[in-house]
Amino acid sequence: MTVWTRTHTVSDPEAMHEAGKQLGAKLRTGDVIILTGELGAGKTTLTRGIGEGLRVRGPVTSPTFVVARTHPSLIDGPPLIHVDAYRLSGEDELDDLDLDWDGSVVIIEWGQGMVDPGPNWLHITIERQRGRQVTDAWDADIAEPRTITVEAHGERWETEEAW
Hints:
- It is a single chain.
- By secondary structure, the chain is of the alpha/beta class.
- The chain has one domain: Rossmann fold (3-Layer(aba) Sandwich).
- It is 18% helix and 27% strand.
- The protein has three helices and seven strands; from the N terminus they run E-H-E-H-E-E-H-E-E-E.
- Strands 1-7-6-2-5-4-3 form a seven-stranded mixed sheet.
- A hairpin with an 8-residue loop joins strand 3 (68-71) and strand 4.
- Helix 1 crosses helix 2 (43-54).
- The longest helix has 12 residues, at 13-24.
- The two termini are 19 Å apart.
């Protein structure tokens, strides 16, 4: 059940990182985020900011080739598990990772439709302007705005805003 939807526009990678920091400061153990967006949209930039807001050990980088990385907390908070499900073929392969869903904050890039995130979760979609060449990284020389749409699901988010 979607309890609210919010849309934000960020102007550049620094603003995306800052949005992540703000969200990370509000996350707690057991929170799940599904990130959706094409290559170069800023998913890892947002996740890097979330890691900073959670105050986890970094650097938070894309787990494309290792599939999942765990970043322990520096302040006795929850660890951040960052998953890139792009190369996974389905929910079975994601289950094989044996993630600590209950004891961590879990962020799954490319995870829409691949996992049942439970009753309380955020679906964040990042969209960039059309018409530019897609790259695998946000090109700071061509800083175009991104639209972030956050859908909150479950009781956890009924009384709390992500931003």
